[in-house]
Design brief:
The protein has 300 residues and is an all-alpha fold. The protein is 67% helix and 1% strand. The longest helix is centred in the N-terminal third of the chain and has 31 residues.
């Protein structure tokens, strides 16, 4: 544990961040009880999963901050949970439309725009795909594969790490770390692409259900948990973040990343409580309809 070597400001910082984590957990528990009581179980369980993303990441970061040697395990735990959340967010958008059958009825003559980020935002020449049961299956498969394969790859990384074959910051082409990281990156982009395609189609329909701020919070979790952590790790590997005994550059980079995540996830937890509660008791799945201009002429 690092706490034994901390001075007074360091202990105050650790205590403050730990308190923020505990408050985030309590806010989530209170929100989960509210959702469980007020929202039907089929949709409520998905929303509880999504709301749990920020407090879980905050908790794993707090554990990694207090016990630096556990960082690899806490990062892997947050990574597994993050993979599940991406799939849950896609399923939430389908549920908010009234389910798959109702979504197909609402967009019977509609088409998905697949030239969207993060994979094909510049490929404007790509055709628009009809909205059918089969295309919905492929979108759900795009996120489900990430929820399945990322835990498998993380488990493989832990097995190789315990055997001394996996070094997280070793980007040697002969080592497994580079190839596993690239494969996880490709799966991540594919899953985010599927969510982006669905959001682009339903964002007008679900505007009165606050889907835009919900998607914004989801995007912040993606950026902060993935991109921010990756950038800090690169800076630490390249010695841009200087060492501060007893911490090496890499340990200090991980240390800084965890502290930032605790503060950021605390804010997202509090904001999520406001966004996911707003007007839920006033909405009915089949009443909230604001079709896109291209879908106004389709039959009911």
């Amino acid at each position: 544990s690092l706490s034994a070597g901390l001075d007074l400001p360091g202990r105050f910082l650790f205590a403050t961040l730990t308190l923020m984590t505990l408050i985030a957990i309590l806010v989530f528990i209170e929100e989960a009880v509210y959702i469980y009581r007020k929202i039907p179980s089929s949709k409520g369980s998905i929303i509880i999963w999504i709301n749990a993303a920020a407090p879980v990441i905050s908790t794993t970061s707090c554990i990694g901050m207090w016990v630096p040697r556990s960082t690899m395990f806490t990062d892997f735990t947050a990574g597994i949970f993050f993979a599940i959340i991406i799939h849950k967010f896609l399923m939430m958008m389908i549920k908010e439309c009234g389910g798959q059958k109702m979504l197909l009825r609402r967009f019977e003559n509609g088409r998905f725009t697949i030239s969207t980020g993060p994979c094909c935002c510049c490929c404007l020449c790509l055709p628009r795909v009809p909205i059918t049961r089969q295309t919905l299956f492929w979108l759900k498969l795009g996120t489900f594969q990430f929820a399945v394969f990322r835990p498998v790859l993380i488990f493989l990384s832990i097995v190789l790490w315990t055997n001394g074959n996996y070094v997280l910051y070793n980007l040697n082409p002969k080592g497994p770390a580079l190839w596993i990281s690239c494969f996880i990156g490709a799966l991540t982009l594919l899953a985010l692409w599927a969510v982006g395609i669905m959001f682009r189609k339903v964002r007008i329909l679900l505007k009165c259900k606050n889907i835009i701020p919900k998607f914004a919070l989801y995007q912040f979790i993606v950026i902060l948990n993935q991109l921010q952590t990756t950038i800090i790790n690169i800076f630490a590997t390249q010695k841009v973040i200087p060492c501060a005994p007893p911490l090496s550059s890499r340990a200090r980079g991980s240390y800084i990343g965890q502290q930032l995540l605790i503060m950021e996830m605390f804010l997202i937890t509090v904001i999520s409580r406001v966004v996911y509660r707003r007007k839920y008791h006033d909405l009915e799945p089949l009443e909230c309809v604001a079709e896109e201009p291209g879908d106004e002429k389709q039959p009911p």
